[in-house]
Amino acid sequence: MVALPLIGVVLAALGPDSADIAGRDVARYAATSLWLGLLVGCLTAILGTAAAWLVVMHRFPGRRFFSWALALPLAAPAFALAYGYADLLDVAGPLRIWLRDQWGHDLPFEIRTIGGAAFILSAAFYPYVYLAMRAAFVNQSVNVLEAAQMLGCGRRTMLFHVALPMARPALAAGVALAVMECFADYGAVQFLSVQTLTTGVVRAWSVYGSTASAARFALPLLAAAALLFWVERASRKGQVHESGRARWRDISPLPLGRLGQVAASLFCTLLLLAGLVIPAGWLLWKLLAARPDWAWLLASLKNSLLLGLAGALVTVALATMLALGTRHLPLAGRIASLGYATPGAVMAIGLLAPAGVIWNYMPSSGTGIAILLLILAYAARLMAAALEPIDAGLARVTPSMRQAARSLGRSEAGAAWSVELPVARGAMLTATLIIFIDILKELPATLILRPFDFDTLAVIANNYAQDERLGQAGAPSLLIILLSLPAVIWLTRRVTLARPGQQDDSDWKE
Amino acid sequence: MASNTPILQVEQASRRYGARWAVESASFALEQGRITCLLGPSGCGKSSLLRMISGLEPLDEGRIFIRGQMMSAVDHVTPPEHRGVGLVFQDNALFPHLDVRGNIAFGIRHLPKAEQQQRIDDLLARFHISHLSGSWPHMLSGGEQQRVAIARALARQPSLLLLDEPFSGLDTHLRATLRKSLLQDLRAAGATVLIVTHDPEEAMGMADELMLMAGGHILQHGTPQFCYDRPTSLAAARLLGDMLDFAVDVRGGAAETLWGRMPAPLLADGPAHLMLRPSMLYVSSDASGGGAAAQVQDMRYLGGEYGLRVLMDGQLLDLKALQPIEPDQPVMVRADLSHALLLPC
Lengths: 510, 345
Known about the structure:
The complex is a heterodimer. Chain A is built from 23 helices and 2 strands. Chain A has helices at about 5-15, 25-55, 65-70, 80-90, 95-105, 115-140, 140-150, 155-185, 185-190, 195-205, 210-235, 260-290, 295-325, 330-340, 345-360, 365-395, 400-405, 410-425, 425-440, 445-450, 455-465, 470-495, 500-505, and strands at about 60, 255. In chain A, α1 crosses α11 (about 210-235), α10 runs antiparallel to α11 and α12 runs antiparallel to α22 (about 470-495). Helices cover about 25% and strands about 35% of the residues of chain B. Chain B is globular and about 80 Å long. The two termini of chain B are about 45 Å apart. The interface of A and B includes residues 400, 401, 418, 422 and 508 of A.
């Protein structure tokens, strides 16, 4: 069921084309995507790694705060950042006018370019690298670092010759995630007029109404997604040996000189400003001057919440069943996870073909079926994001616990119900929140599959932005941030304040 | 139920993994209220046998009866939840989402509340963990976790309690104390218990009956003393401690040993094994009393006694002595053959 959209894309791409889009155009879009992905990959790698290394290994003012706050940009959809920056840095915008008047200079760059898009997407997606690298640095064994020190390594040698090589799998995984998100993004690049494959998919469908040519744009995306997914998985395999049974001691952070402290705090502050505070703040400022259409906002807020909740519940339920089932069928989890690498637009195009069949047979089914399809698209796309924490949660149930439940009178299903699900409760909540946030931020699949007149916050933000009414687009964007921020704060605090050894250490005290 | 029906009866039970027999035609019976230790090296099939008894593993041959009812056969396995067997895992497998009381109640939720509470309170008191009833598993020490796991298994009043390597995760000096008090509590509970272990000291210290297992076979079944003094094979003998093995010749109903002729009425003429525990040999620097000539190669103080490495008749032996004997001295080794064993080759 989850693989359905993937098959749909391939079949659609083979079908007859009505829009007549040249292969050269697909290549041009692909080149843009590739270039953008490369830039975002490099930028996020550098920013995320530097931030993680600073926060884990050094002592400076605000370190504890930054250790979780640096992940907060995850709450903001990339398109919200794009709206904020594009408006703030517009050639005719207030900032540049002021700069020109004051200094007679203009900023030497233009935001509506590949470079600008790369900056915005990096500001939005660096937390993926940051979180992965932070986890890797925190999990590295202190013994190895101390051994390196004893062998005469300075701090810099330690980073480049010990910590980074050990964390390479995490780096690959984090960058792969960031690049996947970059390929999947529609709202930001579309607004910045950067033509990537994903905008190609949506345009081929919405302007030319051609599923076949949309699918043709989608195919290279799918291939890239599969590649990135493979990179992410392959790099994770190497990590297993690291997390052995070694006893963990706290890595004692090294103090920095006065200048270093200022620089470290400044770097982290700038990242947080760039990733969340400046664009969101600017949107908020613009909002004060605007007169939002509250009725429409409220209606779409309701729709967003409904989709988010329903989608999250369905996805988590499916993921849980899958996680419990994959013990018998390991391949199923692999296939289901492929969806995560697949951009939402591609997923939606893939679902259009099967949807067309349903609509042909039941023309009156309308809204209900459309919403169902949309939820299915969410589930297919986000399955891996839910599967991962749930798998980790279920891993806490050892085979002997399962067998103990059996010998204490439970059937196999009963053991799953009374032991595995309660133990994985926290993980399921985590998964629900992650999916909820992702659905709130999702744009392209919603745009393509939503029923007529069914708007979500992301959709109306996009509509306003298309009409260059940024003041109005700010309100739904900020609402999305507002809704996901508490969840992101709770999640990142939970993830980053826990150390792997913590629980074990308290386990065996007499 | 007739009182002479064994609690557990295993008949010719076998289990094969691929071409290898993990357990090969094991047969034995356990009587009500006895504590039996199944002793064997790791990989000998004892854990497989335990899992077969508890219904977690099917049988390739043979049958298993519990209280006279057939529970396992080649084409039938009564699932673990319907066997009335309690199993305590090596890692205790406490449920992390339930507190101590919740863990013990897990298997008896079908009972009326009052009866549940009564049973839980009784078990908590019996295993001296009443003060822990509201604690969470991760707050408990290894020994406490084990008591909870045993109480949890006993709450269902199983006909048979199985313990898998119960003390393997614990400190050596804690083990002896825990073992003793646990043994008392298990006896007071009147449970029929089968303990799997690889530690001979543990097995000797706990068992009413001992079962020795190696290479998928049950070698011997009897009281600890019988198994120690009258092993049926060298392998069985060595499971319970060091056993020295000397090649001897049997001729005319007696064996020629280094310490003279030893009667062997049941053995045919030919080569045989003479088996002695190291404690049956005495090393002395006094050559006057007779014995076998030997040389001490190395000496080490072991606290209260001395460990000697002795070369005797081309064989290196690790022996003990109460008095120090400096290396490179000729010595005499005397033997007490009254408990020595002769086995055919």
